[in-house]
Amino acid sequence: MLIPARNFDTFWTQSASRLTSFSDVPLILPEGAPILHDSFPAKYVTDYIEDYVHSHVYSGKSLADRIKLNKEIESITKLVDGWLLSPLDHAAPKIRCKKLVVASGLTSQPNKPLIPTNAGWKAPSLHHREFGLGLKEILAETSPYKHITILGGGKSSADMVNACLNSGKQINWVIRKSGEGPGYLVSPAPVGKYRSAAEIPFTRQSSKLNPSSFRPLASDAQQMHTSKEGRAKLADLLNGMDLKFKSWANYHGREKALANFHKLEPTTSYVPPNVFCVKI
Q: Over 90: is that where the pLDDT of 217 sits?
């Protein structure tokens, strides 16, 4: 399915600055930065974190100096009071830590499809993890690239589509006919006492819906996830959120939408197949 997505008007952002900055140094947006319902593009968070790790120095070493990138770990051993990491490079010292987070994603290897081309084909083929490195060059006004095609129906693809929208290029978005769409589109508008919808997932109440790194799963949350009655109530809640987001996105009646916009509607649901769901 080919979707000319130049006018796709989704605004993919991070949450409010008070949720994306540390307490000692506030995140201050530059004058003229685009803001929608207290939300703003993620690039400002990236710049903030880069400045933060280089400006905080303790015992002669900055936080950036303490961060080790591109280091392969051969094995991990559980200790009584933490973890022991053994690098693949046996000459490198082992690392002890009290807490360990494995955030490697589904796979560490990019899955790039083999696209047949002719001998004169010169356009680059990039995976999402390489997208940031070539972004400025590809989207520059002087760039020889006039058409950009993005493959895939996940959130990463939606992020890349949004990043390319105002470049003046022709943007095409290709997903499978049997694809599930880009997850879901959520309105960033304020909800109740919250300044934006992005604040809600960070509340204590919302943390009960999933395992959270912010606090242990409370007893009432465990009951919700482990009992038949609790899981049915959870399914009702998630299904209601699913319907609300799809209604807001208005895939089949959105004003000024392109012809194939309705094909982006996700075919999946929040509700796991083994959870009984009461219709709302």
A: no
